[in-house]
Amino acid sequence: MKTSIDPVRAEVVARFLLGVTEEMGAALTRTAFSPNIKERMDCSTAVFDQDGNVVALPQRVPIHLGSMVGVVGAILAKFTRASIRPGDMFIANDPYHGGGSHLPDINMIAPVFFGGEIVAFVANIAHHADVGGMVPGSEAAICSSIFQEGLRIPPVRIMKEGVLNQDVLDMVLLNSRTPDERSGDLRAQIAANTVGHRAVVSLFERYGAQELQRTMQGYLDFTERRFAAAIARLPAGRYESHDWLDGNEPGQRARIQLALTIGDGRLRFDFAGSDPQLQTARNIPYRALIATVYTVVKSMLDPEVAANAGYFRTIEIATTPGTVVGPVSPAAIGARALSCAVLGDVIATAISQATPGKALARSGPHQLIVLAGDDPRNGQYFVNYETIAGGMGARSYRHGMDAVRVHASGSSNLPVEALEHTYPFLIERYEMARDSGGAGQYRGGAGVLRDYRVMGTTWW
C-alpha cells in the first residue's frame, strides 16, 4: 500500500535531508588528513530510514552507494535494535560481510535516536590510501585472494554510547602503513556522522517521528512511480550486450554478459553467461555491481530523479555466484572500480538499444597510480593513491566529456599543488591528450597526460 503525503512537505523534507548529506560531506572533506579525501573527495555520505532504505544521497562517488546500503542492512541483521544504544557508531569494510565493495573504502554508520527509538541512520564512506595487505595502497590486480588486500573489518562498534572504542581504532591503525593519516581520516568520518545525526534529530523534533516517517516513505513511493513511468516509455523487449575484462593471464579475457529485459515499468538485469571469477583482483562484488547498475540506469533514463531507494524498487538484478560479477569469498576484489567502468559500458550499451537518442560510446576504465616510499624531506613513509581519469565516450548528440571518470566513479584528479605539497613529487606536465578520444561527428572525450618527477631514492 502506497503512502499519501503532502507533496510540499515531502519536497521540503527531501531537500533538507539532501542538505544534511552535503553538510556531512563538507565536514568530512574539511577535517580529513589525506589528500585522497580532502582533495580528491573520494568519499560519500547518506541518510537512511529506520529500516536501512536510503532516503538521501548527494552527487559524490556512485560506487559507494552499494557499500553503504549493504552495511546498514548488515548491521540490522547482526545486531538487535535493543542492543544498539544512543551514541553507538559502527565501522566496516568487508565486501563479503556487508561492509563495502573493496577494503580501502571504510564505512562509518551511526543510528539516529529520537524518543528512545532508532528512527534513521546516517553514514559516510571514505577511501583510505592504505589499509595493509601485500602492497602499499592495498590495491593491486595481481592479488589472488582478499586476504592479500588488507585488513578486513566486519560491522563492529567503533563508538560505544559516545565513547571511542580505542581497541578497534588501534587494530585498524596497526594494520596501515600510514597510521597517522588513517587516524585523522577516521576521526573526520566520526565527526561527519555527528554533524548528520544532529541535523536529522532536529528534523524529527520539528515534525515528530510518526509524521516524518510517513513523509519519507511517501517520498520513496513517489520516486518509484516517477521512475516506473520513465521505464514505461521504453519499448518492451530483451536487449543484450557484453564486453571483456583482462583474464588471469596475458592474452586471456573474461566476459561480462548482460541480458536486459524491459517491461511493465520494470528493468531486469541478468548477468547469466558471465565468465567464472578471476584469480586476480578484477572481480566485481555484489555491492559494486548494484551501485553501477543503479547509477547508469538513473543517468540515462531520468538524471533528475532523487537518488533514493524508491527507484531501486523498479530494478531487478540477477547474477550467478562464482562469476566475475558475482565472486564468492575469498576472491580478490580490490581493482573492482576498473572493472566497473567496463561493466558500466555494458549496461549503457544495453540501455542504448532501447533509447537510441541517448546512445553512449564506450569509455573504458581510468588508471590507478600508487607511489609509496620514504619522503626525503622528513623521512616519513607515505602512500600516494590516485586515479587518473580518461575521457567519456561520445554521445549520439554531443561530444564526450574530457578528463572525467564515468559511470560509477566520481572522484577528482588530485590537484598539482596539493600533490607537490604533500608528496616528494614534481609534476612536469599535466594536460589534455589531444585527439585521443576518437574522431567522428561527435568525438570522444580527451584523456590526460601527466608526467611525474619523483624525488628521493627509496621507493616501493
From TrEMBL:
GO terms for biological process: glutathione metabolic process. One of its GO terms (cellular component) is cytosol. Residues 6-455 form the Hydantoinase B/oxoprolinase domain. InterPro entries: Hydantoinase_B (IPR003692), Oxoprolinase-like (IPR045079). Pfam families: Hydantoinase_B. This is Hydantoinase B/oxoprolinase family protein. GO terms for molecular function: 5-oxoprolinase (ATP-hydrolyzing) activity.
